[in-house]
Amino acid sequence: MRNYFENDYTSYRFHDDVLHIIYHQGVCIDLNAAVQIVKDRLLLQEGVSLPILCDIRGIKEINKSARAYLAMEGSTLIKAVAVIVEAPVSEMMSEFYIRTSNPSIPTQSFENLDDAMVFLRNFMA
């Protein structure tokens, strides 16, 4: 499995059996971006289901179709998601996503990386 990859929207890195996805600073995510993000993630995972740490603090904007895609098709091969947020903007964005998109996998927001990793340890094989 490749350890690092980057596209126009995110960087992906494996660390401690968790895939870390970090959104670039100031990105706007539409449906096309969401499709690319999921496609690249699935290629990196090579069919292996993993817990995901997703740092969304860099997202400037994400539209409804992108949120819906990430909640459904974007859940493929994911055991759980810990979302790293920063109050108030990305925290509100994450809570809105969780409330309205109702992701099919365990998803929780954290302001602290250590707390997020404690949550994800419950989903490691």
TrEMBL record:
<dbReference type="Pfam" id="PF25056">
    <property type="entry name" value="DUF7793"/>
</dbReference>
<protein>
    <recommendedName>
        <fullName>DUF7793 domain-containing protein</fullName>
    </recommendedName>
</protein>
<feature type="domain" description="DUF7793">
    <location>
        <begin position="13"/>
        <end position="123"/>
    </location>
</feature>
<dbReference type="InterPro" id="IPR056695">
    <property type="entry name" value="DUF7793"/>
</dbReference>
